[in-house]
Write a sequence for this structure.
C-alpha cells in the first residue's frame, strides 16, 4: 500500500496534467457546436463498431445469414410494393393525387447493433450510414410498423430516435376516418404510446388502427403504428387523446428498413420555406 501511495505522490504532476487536459476537452466540446458535432460523429462510429463486433458473436450462433436474407427480402418486397403503387398511379385518372400520396421511395435494410429500452431517452444504432445513403430525418420502419427517425449519421452507422423517446413526435392519423393527431411517448410503458390533438368530435374506438399521415418527407402514408387501447376525453372537450398499443416490440427488434424518398431534399426545402413564411 505504501508503494502505491508513493507512486501516486511521485507522479502527481502527471495525473494533474491528465485531469486538466480532460476537463479542457470537455469544456471545448460543450462550448462549441462544431467540435461537439465532430465529437458525436466519431463517438457514434466508435460505439457502433463496438456494439457491432460484440453482436457478431451472437449472430454467428443465431443463423445470421438467414436473418440477413430475410431482412433483404423484406426491403425488396417493400420496394416492389412502392413500384406497383407508382404504376397504379399512372393508370388512374387521378394520377396527381396518387403521386402526392405515394412519392417515389425505396427502402434500405439495416441491422440493429444497439438498442436501449429501459431509459426515458432511448435510442437505436443501425449498421447503415452516409455511405449507404442514410441521412438525418429519414423514417425507419420494420415489418411490424414504425420504429423511429434517424437523428444523426456517421459513414457506416446511424442513430435512430425511436417512438419510445419523448422527444420524438410523429404525425399520425386514424385509419378509419383519416383524422390527424400527434403521436408521442409519455416515458412509461414501452408497448404503449399516446396520440394527442385528435379533434373532439372524433370518437376513436378501442381496436382502431393508427397509421402515419404521410404529410412529410419522413414516412409514407399508411404505415402501421399501432391500435387504440384506451380513449380519454369527454364529449364537450375540444380534443381527445388515446393510448396506442405499438405494433413494434422494441425489446426484440433486430432488423429495420430506412425509407428513402427520391425527391426528399426538394420536399424538405419547400416545407422549410412554408414554415419560414408562417
Amino acid at each position: 500500500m505504501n508503494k502505491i501511495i508513493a507512486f501516486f505522490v511521485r507522479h502527481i504532476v502527471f495525473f494533474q496534467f491528465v485531469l486538466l487536459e480532460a476537463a479542457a476537452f470537455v469544456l471545448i466540446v460543450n462550448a462549441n457546436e462544431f467540435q461537439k458535432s465532430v465529437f458525436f460523429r466519431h463517438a457514434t462510429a466508435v460505439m457502433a463498431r463496438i456494439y457491432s463486433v460484440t453482436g457478431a458473436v451472437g449472430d454467428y450462433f443465431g443463423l445470421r445469414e438467414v436473418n440477413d436474407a430475410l431482412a433483404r427480402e423484406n426491403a425488396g418486397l417493400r420496394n416492389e410494393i412502392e413500384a406497383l403503387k407508382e404504376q397504379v398511379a399512372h393508370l388512374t385518372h387521378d394520377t396527381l393525387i396518387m403521386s402526392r400520396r405515394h412519392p417515389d421511395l425505396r427502402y434500405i435494410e439495416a441491422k440493429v447493433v444497439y438498442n436501449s429500452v429501459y431509459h426515458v431517452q432511448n435510442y437505436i444504432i443501425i449498421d447503415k450510414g452516409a455511405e449507404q445513403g442514410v441521412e438525418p430525418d429519414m423514417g425507419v420502419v420494420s415489418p411490424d410498423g414504425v420504429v423511429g427517425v434517424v437523428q444523426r449519421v456517421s459513414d457506416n452507422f446511424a442513430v435512430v430516435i425511436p417512438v419510445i423517446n419523448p422527444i420524438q413526435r410523429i404525425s399520425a392519423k386514424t385509419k378509419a376516418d383519416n383524422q390527424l393527431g400527434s403521436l408521442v411517448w409519455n416515458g412509461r410503458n414501452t408497448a404503449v404510446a399516446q396520440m394527442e390533438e385528435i379533434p373532439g368530435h372524433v370518437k376513436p374506438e378501442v381496436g382502431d388502427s393508427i397509421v402515419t399521415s404521410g404529410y412529410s418527407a419522413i414516412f409514407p402514408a399508411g404505415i402501421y403504428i399501432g391500435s387504440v387501447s384506451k380513449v380519454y376525453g369527454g364529449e364537450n372537450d375540444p380534443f381527445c387523446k388515446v393510448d396506442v398499443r405499438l405494433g413494434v416490440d422494441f425489446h426484440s427488434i433486430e432488423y429495420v428498413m430506412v425509407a428513402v424518398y427520391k425527391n426528399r431534399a426538394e420536399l424538405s426545402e419547400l416545407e422549410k420555406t412554408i414554415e419560414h413564411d408562417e
Q: What stands out?
A: The CA atoms of residues 18 and 24 lie 10 Å apart. The longest strand covers residues 105-115. The chain has a mean pLDDT of 79.
